[in-house]
DNA sequence: TACAACATTAGAGTATAGTCTATACTTGCT
DNA sequence: AGCAAGTATAGACTATACTCTAATGTTGTA
């Protein structure tokens, strides 16, 4: 599929997809049989990857972190041990974030109590 | 206290503190009795505020969100109802983030399983 | 064949959140 | 007095992650 279809399927603009391509998150292929143009072609895996990018970005992962994550997933140059190490590291960092968020919840709840009490 | 002490107590550089001041997160006071300089003086509340900024930033809150949160806390121009509304909104957004993080944990755990199975 | 829609590349522009430099004045210590 | 350390301000610079524009060429449809 070409970039326009990829854009429609993922809800990510062509501009941003090209930016991700430059950043190394995805890779389109050129069709060598076609000499008249330079169009990139994308496969289903790229759709999956962009969906992962969207999810990971929404929880605050940077492009560089997402890049590591996708390497652990799709890159066959990494050993199983290396992949598991990257994945475990991400799991730990997620747990850490959840912990911090819960801490902030507690603080805000306490603030709420204080605000209500001050009102009396 | 002056900016240098504030910096030492919070671990935030003077440059960044001045940036936060420009952004409206904190406010130093000038001593009107002293005419020879223009130095800002900060109180304990400012230390508290900067600690809150640090915590909130670490969980991905933007300066604008932190600003709202601090208004709900310290600004006496807001009604109790308005304050509670801001705090409740932040609590909801934190819950949403925790939900997304848990979703990502599930995905990564599944990836781990897949990586291990592929290895067999 | 005209022409709208689509594709590529380079590069400029935007927003957020700092970070650093330069300049100049003030304060504290010896 | 001299000098290091502290302070303020303006503005330049950096990094991340887009977002948009311009120029140019290609494809598909009426």
Considering the chains and any ligands shown, give keywords for the structure.
homodimer, 120 residues, mainly alpha, Multidrug-efflux Transporter Regulator, Chain: A, Domain 2, two-stranded antiparallel ribbon, 5 helices, 2 strands, DNA-binding
Got a strand count of chain A?
Answer: 2
What is the H-and-E element order of chain A? HHEEHHH
- Large-scale geometry of chain A: elongated
CATH architecture descriptor name of the largest domain in chain A: Orthogonal Bundle
Mean pLDDT of chain A: 95
Query: Which fold name corresponds to the CATH topology of the largest domain in chain A?
Result: Multidrug-efflux Transporter Regulator, Chain: A, Domain 2
CATH class of the largest domain in chain A: Mainly Alpha
Query: What is the CA-CA span between the terminal residues of chain A?
Result: 64 Å
User: Which strand order do you get reading across the main beta sheet of chain A?
Assistant: 1-2
Our estimate of the beta-strand percent of chain A is under 5%
Number of individual domains of chain A: 2
pLDDT below 50 for ≥5 consecutive residues: which ranges of chain A?
none
State the helical fraction of chain A: over 70%
The number of helical segments of chain A is 5
Oligomer: homodimer
